[in-house]
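In response to reviewer comment 3 from the previous cycle, which asked for concrete evidence that the modeling workflow produces usable outputs, we include below a single protein chain processed end to end. The sequence was submitted unchanged, and the resulting structure tokens are shown without manual editing.
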Amino acid sequence: MKKVLVADDKDTGRELVRTVLEKAGHEVFEASDGEAAVVEALRIQPDLIILDIHMPGLDGFGVIEKLRREAAFLHTPIIALTASAMMGDRERAMAAGFTGYITKPIRLDALRAEVERLLA
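The workflow returned the following structure tokens.
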């Protein structure tokens, strides 16, 4: 069982991802904003983080910047979760340190595949 942190300001987004991951046998932790995501990540040291890019306050780019400064998170897989699917958005996320990218609305098969790829 792997520990996965899901950070999204939308309850429905977190619930959907939680359901899929728990069915796959993972232990899921949640954060509803960027600051809480940083605190929770430091507390639980997850094996994988799924991080919404657009959150009020500290956004996903701010969260990943803070986490990647910590030695414990240099190699932790972090998936960007976003409704932004414009040209260049994926490349911008990967350049910022994300290791995966999933667009909303979430395709469950894509979510499962990305999680399993990064936890393999």
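The chain has a mean pLDDT of 95. We consider this sufficient to address the reviewer's concern, and the full set will be provided in the supplementary archive.
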